[in-house]
Design brief:
Elements: E1 4-7, E2 21-24, E3 28-35, H1 49-66, E4 74-81, H2 84-89, H3 91-102, E5 108-113, E6 124-132
Parallel strand pairs: 4-5
Antiparallel strand pairs: 1-2, 3-6, 4-6
């Protein structure tokens, strides 16, 4: 059983692709560094936001699995996007990518617009916190 529990009060708007609140009762916190669309050689891949999002999320989940966790253990995820309008325009596709890679257990999430990321061509970066039993 996952130590992460999602709470979505009826008094708030229905969440789409996130949870309003998450409680966690595990014993190990995993702080996941921001991941972009870098491949194993450190080369940025993908030219569109969905392509880069898929690689960045894959990288985040790879780090999480290496720490002994799974997508269901994610309590908090922050997405940094260089173009929030582009993120919103691609929201349906990004949701499909999330569900394919991470399933339907959504953490508490935020999308933050930023002028640029560490890698100049990066369109998106994803970090997170997971709680392991």
């Amino acid at each position: 059983m996952s130590p992460v529990h999602r709470i979505n009060p009826a008094e708030l708007s229905p969440p789409a692709g996130f949870s309003h609140a998450v409680t966690a009762t595990g014993s190990n916190l995993v702080f996941l560094a921001g991941q972009t669309a870098l491949d194993q050689r450190g080369v940025l891949t993908g030219s569109t936001l969905p392509e880069q999002f898929a690689t960045a999320l894959t990288n985040l989940l790879t780090a999480l699995r290496a720490a002994g966790g799974s997508p269901a253990d994610l309590a908090r995820v922050t997405v940094y996007a260089t173009d929030v309008a582009d993120y919103r325009a691609n929201a349906a596709e990004l949701g499909r990518i999330w569900r394919r890679l991470a399933g339907r257990d959504y953490p508490a999430m935020a999308v933050i617009g930023t002028v640029r990321l560490w890698d100049e061509q990066a369109l998106v970066e994803i970090d997170g916190v997971a709680v392991l039993p």
